[in-house]
Amino acid sequence: MTSELVGRAVLGWRVAELVESWPETASARALVLEVPDWPGHRAGQHVDLRLTGPDGYTTERSYSLASPAARSPGGWRLQLVVQRVRDGEVSPYLTDVFAAGNLIEVRGPIGGWFVWSPREGGGATVLLVAGGSGIVPLMSMIRERRFRRDRTPFRLVYSLRTQADELFADELNRPGIGDGGVETFVLRTREDSPRSGRPAGRISAADLAAWGWPADFAPRCFVCGPTGFVEEVARLLLSLGHSPDDIKTERFGPSGP
């Protein structure tokens, strides 16, 4: 399959089946959807999900893919993570009711800019900065790197409220997550971070200077999280000398770390 095809948004609705799920945190659930006719995707893209009620009412939400751009044996399986939103219309159903064997409509893949693949960048270093559930598309990139056995040096700076809010905790904390090439730094805003020795607080220029790549390395920077978080991190990266051409951002709703 050509990268041109995968890079485009394929906007027809497809029927997907929930084949597996598990709690990532007390308020977030991972969903694995089987989509037999999925056209393929790139690490960093997202999808739309559509629910239809008995009365014909429909509603849609967008969710990032956590899966690498790799076909599973027997067909495509896409992993999403849904964070329950208090008084939300869709997320409570997906986290608390949606069960194995249930069907849902999927549209995508969507987005061709906030993406990474080993073919791009000529081996340049990569800096991933996540706020809260903004880790999801960045996890797709980490998994893609590992699946392709790529050696591009990755660093991940992950800001979240507390340890209990950490998504993909087992995988991120597993020794050798990226075959020695993905360095992970977790910063907490509401409690101290024992692994880094950092006190509680919002992400700062000092954090990015200490845990990210120097600007003169010209890393490709991917920043994802709530709007305020993304805007602040982009500002901090620019203040540290990173080129705006090297910074890609993806943002979502108001809640976050």
Automatic annotation (TrEMBL):
PROSITE patterns: FAD_FR (PS51384). InterPro entries: Cbr1-like_FAD-bd_dom (IPR008333), FAD-bd_FR_type (IPR017927), Flavoprot_Pyr_Nucl_cyt_Rdtase (IPR001709), FNR_nucleotide-bd (IPR039261), MRET (IPR050415), OxRdtase_FAD/NAD-bd (IPR001433), Riboflavin_synthase-like_b-brl (IPR017938). Residues 11-116 form the FAD-binding FR-type domain. Keywords: 2Fe-2S, Iron, Iron-sulfur, Metal-binding. It holds the Pfam family FAD_binding_6. It comes from the Bacteria. SUPFAM superfamilies: Ferredoxin reductase-like, C-terminal NADP-linked domain, Riboflavin synthase domain-like. Its cofactor is FAD. GO terms for molecular function: 2 iron, 2 sulfur cluster binding; oxidoreductase activity. This is Flavodoxin reductases (Ferredoxin-NADPH reductases) family 1. It comes from Rhodococcus wratislaviensis (Tsukamurella wratislaviensis). The lineage of its organism: Bacteria, Bacillati, Actinomycetota, Actinomycetes, Mycobacteriales.
